Amino acid sequence: MAGYRLTAPFAQAGEHWAHLHTGLDFAARTGTPVTAVTGGTVTSAGWSGAYGYRVIQTLPDGTELWYCHLSRIATASGPVAPGTVLGAVGATGNVTGPHLHLEVRPDGAAPVDPLPWLRQLGLQP
């Protein structure tokens, strides 16, 4: 996750969210590539209101990864391997600056803290 800086943790309270923060925010320059953290299938990509441009990657166990606030979408559907470029960091939707908002949603349900999940993959944000 080189080139990114963690700026907002999961469940943080703040004036920018109606409820507790539902993911992790990683600040990076607009246009920085956003890549798949693991293999899966892109099942949705497009505009999503406050999330801006969003790509949803579904894993074989049903977990959804939401990559949000993208400036562009590079992969709109189909299978992806770890490291596949999904899009680029942006400032679309409800934001104060360019960043990647990442959510982990087991079985497509309520979001959970992505940090332990990323660490299980050997990633250290």
In short:
The protein is mainly beta and 125 residues long. The chain contains 1 helix and 9 strands, in the order βββββββββα. Strands 1, 2, 3, 4, 5, 6, 7, 8 and 9 form a 9-stranded antiparallel beta sheet that branches.
Keywords:
nine-stranded antiparallel sheet; globular; Glucose Permease (Domain IIA); 125 residues; mainly beta; 40% strand
Describe the structure.
By secondary structure, this protein is mainly beta. It has a single domain, classed as Glucose Permease (Domain IIA) (Distorted Sandwich). The chain has one helix at 114-120; strands at residues 5-8, 24-27, 33-35, 40-47, 53-58, 64-73, 78-80, 85-89, 99-105. Strands 1, 2, 3, 4, 5, 6, 7, 8 and 9 form a nine-stranded antiparallel sheet that branches. Strand 5 (53-58) and strand 6 (64-73) form a beta hairpin. The model has no long low-confidence stretch (mean pLDDT 88).
Topology:
Elements: E1 5-8, E2 24-27, E3 33-35, E4 40-47, E5 53-58, E6 64-73, E7 78-80, E8 85-89, E9 99-105, H1 114-120
Antiparallel strand pairs: 1-2, 2-9, 3-8, 4-5, 4-7, 5-6, 6-8, 6-9
- Rg calculated over all Cα atoms: 13 Å
Helix count equals 1
Count all strands and give the number: 9
Domain module tally: 1
Whole-number mean pLDDT = 88
CATH fold field value: Glucose Permease (Domain IIA)
Task: Give the uncertain stretches in residue-range form.
Answer: none
Please identify the structural class as seen in this structure: mainly beta
Q: Can you identify the CATH class?
A: Mainly Beta
Q: Main β-sheet: number of strands, strand sense, barrel status?
A: 9 strands, antiparallel
